[in-house]
Write a structure and sequence with these properties.
The strands form 2 sheets. The protein has a 3-stranded mixed beta sheet, with helices on one face. The radius of gyration is 15 Å and the shape is globular. The chain has 2 helices and 5 strands. The chain has helices at residues 71-77, 91-101; strands at 2-4, 27-34, 40-46, 57-59, 105-108.
Length: 118
């Protein structure tokens, strides 16, 4: 099973001439550090330009705010950890691990999909 993990960089349905080259390149989630509370932090790494026909990129991490699937069947297959109450930092890395142990692979798009003007 696969999850297309759209990254946090969006492209407004048409090319925006005000965007810089870095803003129109795809990003991949990468671990950065462990916060003071012990949770793994992640950030988007801007990728080098890729061919338009490049396949989706394997991703180790998952972004809750950019995961597209039907939530009810998804959460029945892979529920959130019931021992992590009111968690904010740490939700995404722990869910990525739970997804992987349930047979899911995460991917990021090789091209920017949508972008919002700044």
């Amino acid at each position: 099973m696969h999850i297309l993990n759209w990254t946090l960089l969006f492209l407004l349905f048409i090319q925006n001439p005000l965007l810089t080259n870095a803003q129109t390149r795809a990003t991949l989630l990468c671990p950065t550090e462990f916060g003071a509370e012990g949770a793994l932090r992640q950030t988007g790494k801007v990728l080098k330009p890729l061919p338009a026909d490049a396949p989706p990129l394997p991703s180790l991490l998952w972004a809750a705010g950019f995961s597209f699937c039907r939530s009810v069947p998804f959460l029945k297959l892979v529920p959130y950890d019931p021992h992590l109450l009111d968690v904010f930092f740490g939700e995404e890395p722990t869910m990525a691990a739970r997804l992987w142990t349930h047979g899911f692979d995460c991917f990021a798009p090789p091209q920017v999909c949508v972008s919002l003007p700044s």
